[in-house]
Design brief:
This protein has helices at about 1-25, 55-60, 60-75, 95-105, 130, 135-140, 175-190, 215-225; strands at about 45-50, 80-85, 115, 145-150, 155-160, 165-170, 195-200, 230-235, 240-245, 250-260, 270-275, 280-290, 295, 305. With about 300 residues, it is of the alpha/beta class.
């Protein structure tokens, strides 16, 4: 009889534990893996890139929420300096439910980790982007520098490791007026190392070619080459990964594409982690999904960039 009671008690405990973990798995945005396996050194810092989230906003909001909650949970361990969203926040710009989901998800970072966001081609032409992500939302944000055409284009400032940085975010297919504005911003902050983020810049072959734009070479010629502080360009839009590095008047400019919306569940939660070394000489690029709790390996997913 004692043996039977022991068996019954053990089965009951296992059942309770099973229910607990089943409930955890159903929690929206509950991180599966709290932090990457190998945290960076304390003198390093991290910039996190959120690629196109349109499919999450449309059909998998729990994965999008998982991303921002995870970022919040590791901001100290990874010394997260900044977060950039590459655009295509929603899939259907006229569906306000998608905007509500995106707003709720990005709000997780408000007042916790500084970030920028920009409109992709799927975020236009309605005014819902400006309703949920207006310039006024960021006007009191630490490091917020200013914006253009509402919050379609913006710039933010941050400092780490004794170095000053500027993040210039430009919407999809920036026109000549936007390029002129961006050129003025970069010129006014020429002592800061500059990261340019725009929705589309290179394609899967690493060519500066963006579907839906007449050309994108003008952005390279008219903004990036002209401003010697630009060393990194980040973009999404094209479904997949690619990179290229070019000489721009004696300096190297790295250009990275990351967009996982073509993967199952709208992207499986993949994020880009840009781990800047404390000496400012390298950026270790990793692709990590807190939703899956794993790294994506391969030459286009994990690599090291030399900076000068």
């Amino acid at each position: 009889m004692e043996i039977n009671r022991g068996i019954i008690l053990s089965l009951a405990i296992l059942a309770v534990v099973g229910v607990y973990f089943a409930l955890r798995a159903d929690l929206i945005g509950e991180p599966i893996n709290e932090r990457p396996a190998v945290p960076v050194r304390t003198d390093d810092f991290t910039v996190i890139v959120i690629p196109d989230t349109q499919k999450y906003s449309a059909s998998h909001p729990e994965i999008f929420m998982n991303q921002t909650r995870w970022i919040r949970s590791v901001k100290d361990e990874l010394n997260v300096a900044f977060v950039v969203h590459e655009g295509d926040i929603v899939d259907n710009a006229q569906d306000e439910n998608q905007w509500r989901r995106a707003n709720e998800t990005m709000s997780v970072l408000d007042g916790v980790v500084p970030y920028s966001i920009l409109p992709g081609n799927h975020d236009r032409p309605t005014g819902l982007y400006e309703r949920y992500f207006p310039a006024a939302r960021y006007s009191g944000y630490p490091g917020y520098g200013g914006s253009h055409r509402g919050y379609s284009d913006s710039y933010h400032l941050f400092s780490r490791g004794g170095r000053d940085y500027i993040v210039l975010s430009l919407g999809y297919c920036p026109d000549n007026e936007t390029i002129s504005w961006g050129d003025s911003v970069l010129g006014s902050h020429e002592s800061r190392k500059a990261i340019v983020v725009t929705h589309g810049f290179i394609d899967l072959d690493g060519e500066r070619d963006v579907s839906g734009c007449d050309t994108i070479q003008y952005l390279w010629d008219g903004l990036i080459v002209k401003n010697e502080n630009v060393f990194l360009v980040l973009s999404g839009h094209a479904h997949g990964e690619a990179r290229r590095s070019d000489d721009a008047g004696g300096r190297t400019v790295h250009q990275l594409l990351a967009d996982y919306q073509g993967y199952p569940e709208g992207g499986q939660g993949w994020l880009r982690l840009l781990e800047f070394s404390g000496d400012g000489k390298t950026i270790v690029v990793k692709t990590y999904s807190p939703y899956l709790g794993s790294y994506k390996t391969g030459p286009e997913s994990q690599f090291t960039l030399e900076t000068n």
